[in-house]
């Protein structure tokens, strides 16, 4: 399967919202509104097929100082199992390095996936309070069960 990763553009907004929506409906991701997606659009990378169909996305969002968050990592269910999530995460980590980040964190329900890339479990207290501004939008807040993980890029 030929997949290309690139920076998101304005015409990708609805596709990004729809990729994440399925996981939001299952309660395993915070759904994205069109407005949220537009605000962070330059931080999104998308995975697409040769015909341009968006099959996955990830956001590399500046959080605090030299710390960035990898969020909204999603691959459409019918395309899972082909390494697209791995490609997106690797592209996100490269983007974070290019951006100047020294650490990356994520909040996840699938810690084994991120551990494979060197992320390690951390206490929620080690993350900046700014992180939780997004979490308050989640219907599961404050006890969502997501696991905070970090990776040093140095």
Task: Write up what this structure looks like.
With 154 residues, this protein is an alpha+beta fold. The protein has helices spanning 13-25, 34-40, 84-99, 111-115, 132-135; strands at residues 4-7, 44-48, 54-64, 67-75, 103-108, 120-121, 147-152. The protein has a seven-stranded mixed sheet.
SSE blueprint and pairings:
Elements (H helix, E strand, L loop, with lengths): L3 E4 L5 H13 L8 H7 L3 E5 L5 E11 L2 E9 L8 H16 L3 E6 L2 H5 L4 E2 L10 H4 L11 E6 L2
Parallel strand pairs: 4-5
Antiparallel strand pairs: 1-2, 2-3, 3-4, 5-7, 6-7
Protein traits:
154 residues; alpha+beta; seven-stranded mixed β-sheet; 5 helices; 7 strands; globular
Number of helices: 5
Oligomer: single chain
Shape: globular
Enumerate the strands of the largest sheet in spatial order, edge to edge or round the barrel: 1-2-3-4-5-7-6
Structural class: alpha+beta
Give helix and strand order, one letter per element, not per position: EHHEEEHEHEHE
Q: What is the CA-atom radius of gyration, in angstroms?
A: 15 Å
Helix content: 25-40%
The span between the termini is 33 Å
Find the count of extended strands (DSSP E, 2+ residues). Answer: 7
Sheet bearing the most strands, described? 7 strands, mixed
Q: How big a fraction of the residues is strand?
A: 25-35%
Which spans of ≥5 residues are poorly predicted at pLDDT below 50?
Answer: none
Mean pLDDT, nearest integer? 89
Summed up, what is this model?
The chain has helices at residues 13-25, 34-40, 84-99, 111-115, 132-135, and strands spanning 4-7, 44-48, 54-64, 67-75, 103-108, 120-121, 147-152. With 154 residues, the protein is an alpha+beta fold.
